[in-house]
Amino acid sequence: MTAQPLTTEARERIIAVLKALLAERGPHKTICPSEIARELGAGSDAEASQQWRAWMPVVRTVAGELAAADVIVVTQGGEPVDIRSVRGPVRIGRPSAATKASN
Predict the structure, then answer these.
(1) pLDDT of 101 above 60
(2) What per-residue confidence (pLDDT) applies to 47?
(3) Which of 2, 13, 16, 96 has the fewest Cβ atoms nearer than 10 Å?
(4) DSSP helix, strand, coil percent of the chain (3-state; round to 5)
(5) Strand ranges across the sheet with 73-76
(6) What pTM value is reported for the model?
(7) Cβ contacts of residue 51 below 8 Å, gap of 6+?
(8) Backbone angles phi, psi at 53, to 5 degrees
C-alpha cells in the first residue's frame, strides 16, 4: 500500500476532518489520528476499508504542524508529546482540553 502524498488538497482535507471530529466531541475530549485516517480512507469494499493506513503518515505530519502552531495538542498517556518523534498511540485534542481527559 502506497502512502498518501501530502498535497495541499490532502492537508486541507485532514484539517477539515480533524476539526469536524473534535467538534463532534465534547470540549475536553480527544481523538485518535487513526479516526482521521479512517474517515479519509472510508470506502465500501474490503480494499477501500484498508486505505486509511495510507493516510496515517500524512495525518501525523499535519498533526505535527498544527501542534507546532499551538492549534492542537498531541498527548500520550495524558502528557503532551511531539508527534514527529514519539512512537506508539497518541491522542489529539484542543490545547486547553487535551490533558484533562481522553476520549
Answers:
(1) no
(2) 66
(3) 2
(4) 45, 10, 45
(5) 30-31, 91-93, 73-76, 79-80
(6) 0.85
(7) 1, 41, 43
(8) -60, -35
Q: Cell numbers at residue 80, please?
A: 503532551
Dihedral pair phi/psi, residue 80, rounded to 5°: -60, 140
Residue 56 domain boundaries: 8-93
Tell me the residue length of the chain.
103
Structural domain includes residue 1: no
Contact assessment for residue 80 and residue 61, using Cβ atoms and an 8 Å cutoff? no
* Residue 98, pLDDT score: 46
Q: What CATH number corresponds to the domain at position 54? A: 1.10.10.10
Q: Contact 14/40 with Cβ under 8 angstroms?
A: yes
Q: Which amino acid is at 99?
A: T
Q: Which pLDDT does position 1 carry in this prediction?
A: 64
The verdict on residue 66 lying in a domain is: yes
pLDDT of residue 34 exceeding 90, the answer is yes
